[in-house]
Structure formats: structure tokens, C-alpha cells
Amino acid sequence: MTDWTQVLALAMPKVVLHDHLDGGLRPETLAELAAEVGHDLPEDDPIALARHLHAGAWRRDLELYLEGFTHTVAVLQTPEALARVARESLEDLAADGVVYAELRFAPELNTQQGLTLDEVVEAALAGMAEGPIPAGLVLDGMRTSPVEVVREAAEVAIAFHGRGVVGFDLAGAESFHPARVHAEALDALAEAGVPLTLHAGEAHGPTMVTEAIDRFGARRIGHGVTLVDDLDGDRLGPAVLAVRERDVMVECCPTSNVHTGAVDTLADHPIERFRELGLRVSLNTDNRLMSDVTMSSELLAVARAFDWTTDDALAVARDSLDAAFTTDEVRTTVHATIDETATRLTD
Ligand SMILES: [Zn+2]
Q: Whole-angstrom Cα distance, residue 152 to residue 162?
């Protein structure tokens, strides 16, 4: 039994695998960048703006949740803005006790003012290189985008793989947009050895998870909340079995799932059930600005809801690091950081 406090949650070494660059801006930065480019925001004051976006996010619907991104994406159209937000994200995560981070975004959304996909990715990587913690970039294709657009994003991911880009993801509205539409892009990525983590089972059933794993060899799954629909008492359905047997990491984002209506309350989140079933889980922010969360606020909420000990939290962090799309060298270094901190903090 651990008596959790904010201070302890902050001090715990944490690993984040699922954090959207365009969902995690500082509200002050969003307001400043919007003023620079003349983009109209619903509120100009950063505090009011953050509250507005958070209220907008919490409408129990994934597609409504995604509305706030029109503002963040609008200001992320220059190399300077992309680099700044990438660097600040890692600074904020580091200050929150995160020891390794993977950021993600869909570069196709950042070309509205003429940047090429390569320039977008180079800018983000340049900002991340100035960050204080080891990190990797996952590129996203939007499920709802035309096939050619996602294929171009995949080509950029292949070109930058090993140079800061560590993986590829499909994001955006799931319903009516199965991954198989983008089979050509996903197959090319697999062939080039770029690991996949696909948003699946967030707003649509477990068949999305099965598709991601069986058809596309995804090593991680974003959200996967609807895997619970694949459980019938003690009987495990094909999606849960596929996750367990192939050791697929489920990137859980509990608070975000409450906001989009994927689960009713944090206590209803299946993260603990997944752990009991022997699935690998990681704990993630998804969108720090939209969902008004940090890694430590998420850890504190989940640890209290499910009576986690510090050892549980450390096990999740270590497991997340093992599932990170990084080099063995970085993994070894970060494991050492976790071990050092752990000796000071365990009960
Ligand atoms: Zn996400």
C-alpha cells in the first residue's frame, strides 16, 4: 500500500509513449503564436484559453474532442513554431519527472503555409534535439485522409527512421476508417522496418485491434479501451489473445478516455483489468493541453484509483521503456536512470 501524494507522483520516474505534439502546447505559447500569425482564438488569455479547450474536450465524443486541434494546428505552420513547441514539450515532460518520451503528430497537418513534409519533420526534430531528455518522434497519418496523403507521410517516416523518427501511427476518427484503407502505406513501413503503433479500439470495437496486430503487425496499440468488449467473464476473445500472445503494448490514456466518452469514469478504465490479464500496459497523457493532464497527475489518479504501489508504477514505467521504439543504448541508459531514482523512492 502506497500513500500517494503529488510530490511522490512527480518524483517517480515516468515514461510516456503516447503524447500528441499538437495536443500538448503550453496555453501561453498557443496564445503567443496565435497573436503572431493573426489566428483568432476563442479566448486570448492563456488561462481562459486552457479552460475553454478543456471544456471543449470533455464532451464525451472523440470527434468533438478533436475540434480543439484546429487552433493548435493553425499555429504550427512554421519551422520556428514547430521547433519551439517540440522543445517546450520535452522541457515540460522533463520537469514532470518523465525520463523518456515519444511525441507524435501528423506532418500532413502542418503544410498549410507551404512547408514540405520534410521541413515539418526537420523542424520538430530540431526542437526535440534541444530538449533535456531522450526522446523519439512518431509520425502519424490521419485515418480520414486520402490514401496518397498517408502514403507520403509513411515515406517521410521511412526516410527519417533512425534519424529521430522512431515509428508510425494512424490517428484520428476510427469509425468508418479502418486501417486497411491505408494498407499500402502500412505495408511499406513494415517492409522498411519502421515499427507501428496504431490508435485502435478507442472509439470502435476490438476488431480494430485485431486488424492492427494481425494484418499490420503493430507492436503497440493506442488506447485499446474497447478490448473489454472482447472479454466474456474469464473467456478471452481473439483481440485480447492477440495482444497477450504477441506481447503488444497497450498505450492507455485514462483521462483522455473519460473525456471522449470511451469510459465513464477513471475508475471504470480497464487498465488494471488488462494488467490482471497479463497484458502489457503503459500510462500516457495523450493530450496534455486538451485533457488538462500531466504524467504525474495521470499517475496519481490511476495509482489512487487502483491502489498501485510504487513498485506497480515502476513496473509500468520499465515495461513502457522496453516497448519504446528506441535504441538499446538509450534504453539501457534510461533504465539506469529509473533504477537510481527507484532506490530512493520505493516503499
Ligand atoms: Zn492519441
A: 18
User: Which of 202, 211, 251, 298 is the catalytic position?
Assistant: 202
Query: What pLDDT is recorded for position 249?
Result: 98
Rounded to the nearest angstrom, the distance between the alpha carbon of 199 and the centre of ligand 1 is 7
Grid cell 493553425 in the structure block, residue: 74
- Catalytic status, residue 202: yes
What's residue 1's pLDDT?
Answer: 76
- Sheet with 249-252, strands from edge to edge, namely 197-200, 220-223, 249-252, 280-283
Which has the closest alpha carbon to 334: 347, 316, 322, 346?
322
- Residue 263 located in a structural domain: yes
347 has pLDDT over 70: no
Q: Could you tell me the CATH number of the domain that includes residue 138?
A: 3.20.20.140
The yes-or-no verdict on residue 136 having pLDDT over 90 is yes
* pLDDT tens digits along 261-284: 889 999 999 999 999 999 999 999
How many domains is the chain built from?
A: 1
- The radius of gyration of the chain from alpha carbons, rounded to an integer in Å, stands at 19
Residues with CB under 5 A from ligand 1 (ion): 286
Domain membership flag for residue 59: no
Q: Tell me, what DSSP letter sits at residue 111? A: -
Query: From the centroid of its chain, how far is CA 251?
Result: 7
Note if the pTM is more than 0.85: yes
SS3 assignment for 299-339: HHHHHHHCCCCHHHHHHHHHHHHHHCCCCHHHHHHHHHHHH
User: Does the residue 39 lie in any domain?
Assistant: no
State how far Cα 341 lies from the chain centre.
Answer: 24
What letter would DSSP give residue 225? Answer: G
